[in-house]
Amino acid sequence: MKDDAPLVYSTDGGRVIPAKEAVSRPKGDGIVRLSRQTSGRKGKGVCIISGLDIDDAALSQLAAELKKKCGCGGTVVDGNIEIQGDKRDFLKGYLEGKGYRVKLAGG
């Protein structure tokens, strides 16, 4: 067995699950951008919130809070929050109330 090959199974302890490495995201410019996207979603629109300089746990917590306030679904993908529906005006006001600088991006 090669030394650089990842360990998949060991008779000592059974299945070995490798630790996940933290994904580093580029630092933003301090401005949170709200955009609307419909491509690849069969015409259904989502609001994408990008540019948040917070860690993954806080990002997930903020996404859950926004989903509850909007009364809709959403997810966190690659450091961006996706909220179902066109709720940009509400999200802009809510995030500004939390102290973020927010810009509407795109059409």
The rounded distance between the terminal residues' Cα atoms is 55 Å
Secondary-structure element string: EEEEHEEHE
The CATH class name reads: Alpha Beta
Radius of gyration: 19 Å
How is the main sheet built?
5 strands, mixed
Q: Name the quaternary structure.
A: single chain
Per DSSP, the total helix count is: 2
Query: Which structural class do the helices and strands define?
Result: alpha+beta
The amount of beta strand, in percent, is: 25-35%
- CATH topology category name: Translation Initiation Factor Eif1
Overview of the molecule:
There is one protein chain. The protein is of the alpha+beta class. The protein has one domain (22-104): SUI1-like domain (Translation Initiation Factor Eif1), CATH 3.30.780. It is 23% helix and 27% strand. The protein has helices at residues 56-70, 88-97, and strands spanning 9-10, 14-15, 31-37, 46-50, 74-77, 80-84, 101-104. The strands form 2 sheets. Strands 5-6-4-3-7 form a 5-stranded mixed β-sheet, covered by helices on one side. A two-stranded antiparallel ribbon has the order 1-2. The protein is elongated.
